[in-house]
Amino acid sequence: MEKKMKGWSVLAFGLAILVFNASPSDATITCNEAITYLFPCQPFLVGFGPSTPSSTCCMGAEDVFEQANTTKTRRVLCECFKQAATEIGTLPERAQLLPQFCKIHVSVPIDANVNCSK
After folding, report:
1. What's the domain count of the chain?
2. Which residue, 1, 15, 31, 92, has fewest beta-carbon neighbours within 10 Å?
3. CA 26 to chain CA centroid, nearest Å
4. pTM: predicted TM-score of the whole model, two decimal places
5. Range of 64's domain?
6. Which string of DSSP letters, residue by residue, matches 93-108?
């Protein structure tokens, strides 16, 4: 009986993976997810740590900005980053350097003073 249950668990897990992978590719990223991806960037962004972002930071930033593929998502992330930048004390000059150091295109500014309605 235990063997049979284990087999069903593996099958259910496999089906769940297939369902999630079959989801539409235009899925949006939430503010919490974006902040989680960018968490490794915090030491760089606030000026406590290295003068360049870590590779983990750059990978997370790349993941976030690849998912910011709709105007609605970019506006939500803009407001999210605006609030987070103020709360953690992001240095604007560091935020502006992130795309250059990580060699990525940033479709959403990480700046507490940006107008997110554009």
Report:
1. 1
2. 1
3. 15
4. 0.71
5. 28-102
6. HHHHHHHHHHT---SS
